[in-house]
Amino acid sequence: MARTTSAPVDAPAIRTPAADAADASGLGRRRALTFVAPALLLIAVFLVLPALWTLYLGLTNYRLTGLEAANPEVVGTANYSSALKDPEFHDALGRTLLFVFGSAVIGQNLLGFALAWSLRSVRRWVRTAVEAVVLVAWILPGAVVAWLWIAFLEDQGGTLNAILHTPGSDWWFDHPMGALIVFNIWRGTAFSMMLFAAALSSVPPSQLEAARLAGASGWRQLRDVVIPSIRGHILTNTLLISLWTFNDFTPYLITKGEPHGASAVLPVYIYLTALPGERLGFASAISLIMLLINLVLALMYVGVLRRRPA
Q1: Each residue of 33-62: pLDDT tens digit?
Q2: Claim to verify: residue 114 and residue 221 sit in the same structural domain
């Protein structure tokens, strides 16, 4: 009887843990780079190159018109030293910090948490209605929101004056920063509310029940159980809304920095310096200073977040 022999079968390639870690998707490095190349190209074109161009402009006396526009000269760090000595820059930075602290750190944090905490125990249709109203304020385009608030606080025929029977009161002129802080709280609370609602849902009910049975009041349950459990979420929310508010340009759509620069937060001040003021080099230097301030704020929050107890 003839003996048949089977063809040898190649042994499967042995994959090492290092190879799996280097290519978890199984695509290979070349194909993986092909997939991410469009995203890297967009980042380079719209983020990296403008950032490098801004850095270069900050070292020059570049202007929109005149001799400096045709033949800009490198002035080194003169723009930065001038900005740090400029009283208008100091005023704009102070208004920006007030805007961030009042509307984001305090306003959106507290109101967002209060809404999320209160909506836990209400009827479902009430919670859905409140969430819808708050979300509408968040998703409306900035130009629409600006027009609505201009109409709401207008001195002649404004809705608030009609409610309070105070015709002629010019809220934007008399209280520009206060009005902007209230506006930004109204607009940005939705994000904090949604984040805190998700965070509160992760708090184990057994812990709250144990605290209640131990005689803890509602305030003590909140202080000793809830807040320590969601401390990381609070810090994350504060970081995000602080950076967003610090860089918010929407106040320009409402006040354009008026009256007499009293509502010119830092992004608005940079715009007014760069385009109407035509001082692109000086404005670019302020933009880099603003970027460094953002970086310092982010590092402060991240440092606190990493030190949180496990």
Answers
A1: 888 899 999 999 998 998 899 999 999 999
A2: yes
Give pLDDT tens digits for 256-271.
Answer: 998 888 999 999 999 9
- Shared-domain flag, residues 163 and 290: no
Spatial distance between the Cα atoms of 288 and 268, rounded to a whole number of angstroms: 15
Nearby residues of 177 by Cβ (< 8 Å), 6 or more positions away: 95, 98, 99, 102, 262, 263
The letter for the amino acid at 1 is M
Q: Are residues 158 and 247 in the same domain?
A: yes
Task: Say how many domains are in the chain.
Answer: 2
Residue 147 lies in a domain: yes
Annotate 15-79 with DSSP letters as a single string: PPHHHHHHTTTSS-HHHHHHHHHHHHHHHIIIIIHHHHHHHHHTTB---SSSHHHHS--B-TTHH
Tokens linked to 51: 């950032």
Q: Is residue 42 part of a domain?
A: no
Instruction: State the greatest distance between any 2 C-alpha atoms of the chain, in Å, as a whole number.
Output: 113
Cis before 259? omega within 30: yes
For residues 51 and 187, give the distance between their C-alpha atoms in angstroms, rounded to a whole number.
Answer: 29
In whole angstroms, give the CA distance from residue 222 to residue 119: 15
300 in the same domain as 233:
no
Q: In the beta sheet, which residues pair with residue 60?
A: 74
pTM of the model: 0.83
Angle at 28 between CA 26 and CA 30, to 5 degrees: 150
* Residues of the domain holding 251: 92-278
